[in-house]
């Protein structure tokens, strides 16, 4: 992530997450567990050896997918963001991360051709570069290389920890230089009329980011040309069809999100970047239209994207099957990146709410609590007797995948996430895009300080803000006393807080409701507006428990309900079913998750006391549990499925449903945390008894 000059804002750098917070702990796990794990897997699964084959340092066969170079680049990007964070805090980079960077950049430098070309798949085994733009992913890999260079460009070379490490400083310089060599080769080819549409979009956004940090206008021009060139069927015929590559219709005319979900969302992120930098309102409107298509009719409630295992693609409008939904991790990450760009570009809070849904649900579920096992496909239901599992869609998280795009993609997002927490707006305000715990630097009109944020999200709605002004040496009593800051001076700019998804401020009756807001504060357009001079504030967002139903056109979800609390989607896991379940006074055996339904829940947006509906009670995996009333429902013939005279078990006659069992309760787990207590069944959408 880098500065984004936009109509509404640009991201704030120097933000640091509170280490004890929900997101701060995840950032720490990413740094200390996920990144070392990714580095190890790059070696174990051959991505680095594929590059060594180019230099002659490895004689074995090529392994893995043809775009394995991109996995190396994503890890380098993540380490770049972590290096920046460490340098800002005056701390050395972890030795393993440092060694990987120095050695990996040296390897890339040795593998790169004199003309700047770099691709381990096309430089070996007699292949010809640029001969298959549809499938060889050369520009896709270049895009991830460019994103790594962007991250390292943000590492301040004069920082003491960097300046004192000659090898690391040299690696930073060479990574940026070799990236420029490759990009300049592509620029020359473009100007010579060579094809610039890659089968997998990604380079578009990366080139704009590279333009922002290096200032080369031809990078922006190339990115804009790539966006305009797509959609004219230039990639040629393919069994997947042109829509799979978003090459069936230009972005400006496309009526709906279509094709491979990750490709579509990366393309839109790049188009948004181009639109912002070139002030192209028409292109930005097209991006918004396609974002709306995805979010209004094709997105899963968890923020997952992609309905079909075939093609890893979007389906038709309202085609959102929970058990067969593909919802690839990379698609959720790509959608988060797109929504973040649109939030910066427009200031509309709805894009931030989409970021919440993706981050707290689909993205969080992509990795376990230890940070070393991952989901590639992340469906909303895992059946008790699941069959037909393929490598990218196992019944539980895996340590790695042959197609390893998701784990390092997750690592780079988490390493850079702090840069998305806040933004400067065009009218001089500071906007908290992600109201998460941390420290945000503020400077305006000769004044500076730190805004400290304490947030209970996503589990509680407590938000505390405190501004501490910096004391200038040699000025006033504070200088004489040696004080480092003063809490008496207020924040020199207005502050805007985005209200989280599924949250609202209290009714004013309590000490933290709107009545307690300072003079001049207001809630408007999904934002809490606070005036200049803020010193301290505490507010409490209500995280409502809501029982939701799907749109009536979503056939796969008819008669089912999903429970949400604030931005968090909840799921029922088989591990939480009681050991003893009674039906009409008899103990049932072999009750499976598919036998269970919600009992008499209403569509309300309130938290309820007692046992008449969903209730926040207790914890599961350190998060608030939502306890729901359930019953077991079985159809006649379920216990006689082996009897030749039994009714057909799959399609019993109308009215042949057995009576419901006694009511019982079970806790729901946040979807982002499911699968951390062993294998088992899970479902987000639960059948509702009143819908039978």
From TrEMBL:
GO terms for molecular function: hydrolase activity. Residues 635-660 are annotated as: Disordered. Residues 547-687 form the Non-reducing end beta-L-arabinofuranosidase-like GH127 C-terminal domain. Keywords: Hydrolase. This is Glycoside hydrolase family 127 protein. Coiled coil: none annotated. InterPro entries: 6-hairpin_glycosidase_sf, Beta-AFase-like, Beta-AFase-like_GH127_C, Beta-AFase-like_GH127_cat. It comes from Nesterenkonia aethiopica. Residues 637-647 have a biased composition (Acidic residues). Residues 15-417 form the Non-reducing end beta-L-arabinofuranosidase-like GH127 catalytic domain.
């Amino acid at each position: 992530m880098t500065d984004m000059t936009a109509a509404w804002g640009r991201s704030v750098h120097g933000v640091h997450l509170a280490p004890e917070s929900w997101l701060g702990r995840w950032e720490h796990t990413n740094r200390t567990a996920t990144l070392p794990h990714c580095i190890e897997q790059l070696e174990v699964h051959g991505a680095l050896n594929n590059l060594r084959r180019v230099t002659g340092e490895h004689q074995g066969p090529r392994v893995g997918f043809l775009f394995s170079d991109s996995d190396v680049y994503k890890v380098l990007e993540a380490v770049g963001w972590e290096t920046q964070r460490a340098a800002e805090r005056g701390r050395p980079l972890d030795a393993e991360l440092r060694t990987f960077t120095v050695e990996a950049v040296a390897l890339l430098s040795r593998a790169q051709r004199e003309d700047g070309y770099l691709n381990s798949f096309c430089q070996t085994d007699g292949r010809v570069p640029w001969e298959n733009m549809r499938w060889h992913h050369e520009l896709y890999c270049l895009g991830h290389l460019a994103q790594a260079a962007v991250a390292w460009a943000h590492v301040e070379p004069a920082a003491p920890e960097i300046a004192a490490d000659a090898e690391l400083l040299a690696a930073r310089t060479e990574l940026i230089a070799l990236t420029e060599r490759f990009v300049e080769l592509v620029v020359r080819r473009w100007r010579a009329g060579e094809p610039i549409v890659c089968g997998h979009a990604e380079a578009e956004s990366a080139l704009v980011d590279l333009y922002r940090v290096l200032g080369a206008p031809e990078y922006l021009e190339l990115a804009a040309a790539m966006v305009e060139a797509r959609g004219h069927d230039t990639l040629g015929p393919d069994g997947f069809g042109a829509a799979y590559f978003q090459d069936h219709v230009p972005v400006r005319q496309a009526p709906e999100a279509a094709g491979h979900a990750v490709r579509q969302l990366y393309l839109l992120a790049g188009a948004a970047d181009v639109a912002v930098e070139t002030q192209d309102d028409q292109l930005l409107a097209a991006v918004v239209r396609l974002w709306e298509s995805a979010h209004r009719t094709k997105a899963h409630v968890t923020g997952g994207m992609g309905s079909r295992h075939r093609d890893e693609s979007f389906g038709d409008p309202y085609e959102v099957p929970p058990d067969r939904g593909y919802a690839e991790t990379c698609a959720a990450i790509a959608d988060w990146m797109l929504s973040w760009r649109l939030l910066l570009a427009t200031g509309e809070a709805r894009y931030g709410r989409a970021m919440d849904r993706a981050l707290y649900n689909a993205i969080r579920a992509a990795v376990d609590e230890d940070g070393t096992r991952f989901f590639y496909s992340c469906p909303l239901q895992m059946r008790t007797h699941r069959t037909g599992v393929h490598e990218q869609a196992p019944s539980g998280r895996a340590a790695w995948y042959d197609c390893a795009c998701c784990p390092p993609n997750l690592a780079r997002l988490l390493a850079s996430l702090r840069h998305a927490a806040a933004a400067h707006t065009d009218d001089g305000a500071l906007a908290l895009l992600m109201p998460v715990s941390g420290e945000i630097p503020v400077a305006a009109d000769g004044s500076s300080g730190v805004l400290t944020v304490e947030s209970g999200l996503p589990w509680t709605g407590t938000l505390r803000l405190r501004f501490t002004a910096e004391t200038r040496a040699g000025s006033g009593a504070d200088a004489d006393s040696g004080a480092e800051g003063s809490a008496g001076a207020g924040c020199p700019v207005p502050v805007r807080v985005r209200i989280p998804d599924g949250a609202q401020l209290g009714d004013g009756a309590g000490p933290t409701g709107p009545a307690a807001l300072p003079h001049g504060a207001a809630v408007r357009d999904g934002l809490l507006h606070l005036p200049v001079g803020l010193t301290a504030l505490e507010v409490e967002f209500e995280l409502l428990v809501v029982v939701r139903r799907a749109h009536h056109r979503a056939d796969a979800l008819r008669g089912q309900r999903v429970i949400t609390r604030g931005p968090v989607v909840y799921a029922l896991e088989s591990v939480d079913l009681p050991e003893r379940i009674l039906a009409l006074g008899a103990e049932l055996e072999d009750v499976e998750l598919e036998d269970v339904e919600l009992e008499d829940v209403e569509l309300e947006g309130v938290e309820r006391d007692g046992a008449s509906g969903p209730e926040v009670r207790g914890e599961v995996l350190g998060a608030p549990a939502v306890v729901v009333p359930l019953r077991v429902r079985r159809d006649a013939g379920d216990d006689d499925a082996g009897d030749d005279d039994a009714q057909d078990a799959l399609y019993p006659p109308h009215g042949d449903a057995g009576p419901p069992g006694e009511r019982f309760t079970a806790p729901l787990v946040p979807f982002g945390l499911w699968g951390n207590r062993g294998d088992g069944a899970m479902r987000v959408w639960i059948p509702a008894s009143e819908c039978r």
